[in-house]
Each structure stands twice: as C-alpha cells, then as structure tokens.
C-alpha cells in the first residue's frame, strides 16, 4: 500500500532539513527524502571543502528549530569583523565590526556537512517527521493534492504537498513543469581549504580585483577557506595545478594579510550561475532554496536566503491555512509564501549582479564610483548599518523565528 504524507520534502540538505524541523510542532505528517549518505563528524578530521557564511538570521532560525547546538558542538568559527577593499594600494578599504552595532559577532563560517548533520540529528527526534535516506527518486507523478513519488528502493509515497528542496538541478521543478530564468556568469570560483601561519581569525575579508574577488573565510584553528573568482579558463588552469604549485599561485595573488599558507588540504571549482524559477508554487507543489534560486556567492547569501524561504514557508503552512478554508497545499495559501519570498530574493539577486558588474571591471569611471561607494559605506553610519544589516540577514520581511 502507498504510504501517505501531508508534506514530502525532496532533498534533506540545509534548506529542506530546516523546513522539516520547522514543521515539528504542526499537525502535518512530513517525510524528507535524501539521496546522499552523510559521513558522521570526526573532530580530528580535516575541514570540508564546502563551507558557508551563516548570517545572524540563519543562526536564529537554526537555533529555533533546535539544530544550532548540534552545530556549535561540532565545529564553527564566529567572525566579528568584515573587510572589503580594492586591489590597488591607494584604494579605499572598509572595515565593519560587530562592536559598532552592539553585537558579539556578525556571523559564523560553518562546514555545510556539519549544518546538515545537526539538522538531520534534530529531525530524527521528531515524531511527525520520517527521514527516508539514502534513496533517490525514480518517478514523480504530479497531481495537485495527491502526487505519487516512486523511490529507488521500490516504495511508493503519496503527498498532498511536494516540496522541491533538491537544489539547483531540481528534478521536482522539472517534473511539475516550472521553468527557470537562467544565465551563466563569466566567472568560476576556485575554493581551497588551507592552513596558514596564523592562528584562529575573527575576520572575513574580500579584495576586489578586475578579474574577480579574492575572499578569505576563517575556520577554526589555523584553517581557512579561500575563494578565488576568475574566468572559467583561468580557474580550470589553477585547478589542474599540483597543490604545491597552487600554493605558489595563491601566495603570489592573494594579499599579504593572508600570511604564509602552509598546506592546501583540498580544492574544488564551481561554475557560477544565476537562476530564478518563474514561479515558486502551484497547487500541491512549492520550491525552496536553490531549487527556487541560485545567486552569485560573492556575498555568501545563497543558503541564508534559502533558510528564510524554509522559515517563511513553515510560518505560512502552519498559520495561514489555519486562518482560511483553503487546503494548506493549495495555490491560495502557497501564494502567500511566494509573495513574501520572491521579491526579496529577486532584490538580493539584483544586488549581487550589481556587485559582480561594478567590481569585476577595470573601467575607470566604475573604479572611481566603487571607491567612492566603499568610502561612503565605511564612513556614513546609516550606510554602514545598512550594509551590516544586509550581511547579517536582518533586512526585509523576516519570519518570526529570524527576528
Ligand atoms: C563556491 C560557493 C560558495 C558558497 N558560499 C556560500 C556562503 O558563504 N553562504 C551562503 O549562504 N551560501 C553560499 N553558497 C550557496 C549555498 O551553497 C547554496 O545556496 C546552498 O547549498 C543551497 O542549499 P539547498 O539545501 O537549497 O540545496 P543543496 O545544498 O543543493 O541541497 C540539495 C539536497 O537535495 C538532495 N537531493 C538532490 N536531488 C535529490 C533527489 N532526486 N532525491 C533525493 N535527494 C536529492 C541533495 O543530496 C542535497 O542534500 C555558496 C555556493 C558556492 C557554489
């Protein structure tokens, strides 16, 4: 017999897992389907390649859903300062500090796997949530209010509401016929997990160069994650280097404040794409996280806006449908979520595009403009506060659990 659920979340990544945890106190019966098997955390292990800068809003959401303690118990690095500047020695630089606005920190850098492990640990404690993993989807038969999902282990499940949390290449989104608007940035990102001569840092910095930014994200101890944005060809060339030669290239290109880099532990590269779903919902299906939007990672906002999607959707499913006669999976209810999130995500995408175009450029008027911009952002209190509240995820129509 087919097993029936109110909500089936396809993708137990950071965003899908958070939605399941946020539905803990509801009457909804929830299943999370995840195809990957996560290796458990070993405190002596090297840092993973994939890390994220989590905003204050994300910390609040993860804390509220009961996953934050599991993150802190594993490995996390708070940052209190954020610095941005241009390549040239004489150019403006701007330093933002949490002290300026009375916070203890601006955010945390965390390995993605640790966030996911803590979320999954939490959702396994919930009575109304089943985690079905590792298993893939073999077929999706979309039917509003009663979609049928076939799993690779032969099981068949029925969902009133299907949630696509299965990332940028979302199978669910394609199966239900929601298109995307997409283009590739002419930039790839090389991510390197390294150890440096310096002990633990409380600063994240980004230097803008005409070919793309260079970023430093602190991890615990003397570990750090470096991100080097450049043309697809140059990133492919850098990635093909031996670790020894890559270290030389990093040392040559990155600013002196990085210090000596001792080891390169792992390296990966990522094509950068902007992608936005044409709709976030229709009867019986809804998109969250990268399944709905992918943005340039230069300001580290992708998962942060995904967690806001998850929190707002949980708020709408548990609040809005109770206030109306509409079914919780109907487009009438889901449109409230779409309205609250789509415009906010679009404005963040547009801000990232503006950064990408203004900073990855050697055009003289733009150079002047961005230097003026950096000086203004650094000196004027309202502008500083605006930049900081953006980076901390505290802008816009926030769900109650992020306030
Ligand atoms: C270089 C780089 C740096 C970044 N840095 C930051 C940062 O600092 N801060 C930030 O906020 N964001 C950052 N991002 C963006 C961030 O990584 C993504 O926005 C985030 O991972 C999206 O989370 P998600 O859960 O929506 O999707 P995903 O992380 O893609 O998770 C999708 C999940 O669904 C599962 N899945 C997929 N298909 C199926 C299926 N058919 N059946 C079952 N399960 C399935 C996958 O296994 C996975 O667990 C960065 C991105 C890049 C490329």
From TrEMBL:
The keyword Oxidoreductase applies. Residues 4-343 form the FAD-binding domain. The keyword Flavoprotein applies. Its cofactor is FAD. Pathway: Cofactor biosynthesis; ubiquinone biosynthesis. Transmembrane segments: none annotated. Pfam families: FAD_binding_3. Keywords: FAD, Flavoprotein, Monooxygenase, Oxidoreductase, Ubiquinone. InterPro entries: FAD-bd, FAD/NAD-bd_sf, Ubi_Hdrlase_CS, UbiH/COQ6, UbiH/COQ6_monooxygenase. Belongs to the UbiH/COQ6 family. PANTHER family: 3-DEMETHOXYUBIQUINOL 3-HYDROXYLASE, UBIQUINONE BIOSYNTHESIS MONOOXYGENASE COQ6, MITOCHONDRIAL. This is UbiH/UbiF/VisC/COQ6 family ubiquinone biosynthesis hydroxylase.
């Amino acid at each position: 017999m087919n097993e029936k659920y109110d909500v089936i979340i396809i993708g137990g990544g950071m965003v899908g897992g958070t939605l399941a945890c946020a539905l803990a106190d509801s009457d909804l019966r929830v299943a999370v389907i995840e195809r990957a098997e996560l290796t458990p955390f070993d405190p002596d292990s090297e840092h993973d390649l994939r890390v994220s800068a989590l905003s204050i809003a994300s910390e609040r959401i993860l804390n509220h859903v009961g996953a934050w303690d599991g993150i802190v118990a594993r490995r996390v690095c708070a940052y209190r300062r954020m610095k941005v500047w241009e390549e040239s020695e004489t150019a403006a630089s701007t330093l933002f500090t949490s002290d300026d606005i009375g916070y203890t920190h601006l955010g945390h850098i965390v390995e993605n796997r640790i966030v996911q492990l803590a979320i999954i640990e939490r959702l396994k404690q919930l009575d109304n949530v089943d985690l079905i993993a590792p298993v893939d989807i073999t077929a999706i038969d979309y039917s509003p209010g009663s979609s049928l999902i076939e799993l690779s282990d032969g099981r068949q499940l029925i969902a009133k509401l299907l949630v696509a949390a299965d990332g940028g290449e979302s199978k669910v989104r394609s199966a239900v016929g929601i298109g995307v608007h997409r283009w590739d940035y002419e930039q790839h990102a090389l991510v390197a997990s390294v150890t440096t001569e310096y002990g633990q840092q409380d600063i994240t910095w980004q230097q803008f160069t005409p070919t793309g930014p260079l970023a430093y994200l602190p991890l615990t101890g003397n570990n750090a994650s470096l991100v080097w944005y450049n043309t697809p060809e140059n990133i492919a060339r850098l990635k093909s280097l031996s670790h020894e030669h890559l270290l030389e290239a990093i040392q040559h290109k990155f600013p002196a404040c990085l210090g000596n880099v001792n080891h390169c532990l792992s390296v990966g590269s990522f094509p950068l794409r902007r992608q936005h779903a044409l709709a976030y919902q229709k009867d019986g299906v809804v998109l969250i996280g990268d399944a709905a939007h992918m943005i340039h990672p230069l300001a580290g906002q992708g998962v942060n806006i995904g967690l806001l999607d998850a929190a707002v959707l949980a708020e709408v499913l548990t609040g809005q449908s109770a206030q109306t006669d509409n079914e919780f999976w109907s487009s009438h209810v889901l449109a409230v979520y779409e309205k609250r999130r789509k415009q906010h995500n679009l404005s963040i995408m547009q801000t990232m595009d503006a950064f990408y175009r203004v900073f990855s450029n050697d055009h003289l008027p733009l150079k002047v403009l961005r230097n003026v911009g950096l000086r203004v952002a650094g000196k004027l209190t309202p502008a500083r506060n605006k930049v900081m509240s953006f980076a901390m995820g505290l802008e816009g129509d926030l769900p109650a659990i992020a306030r």
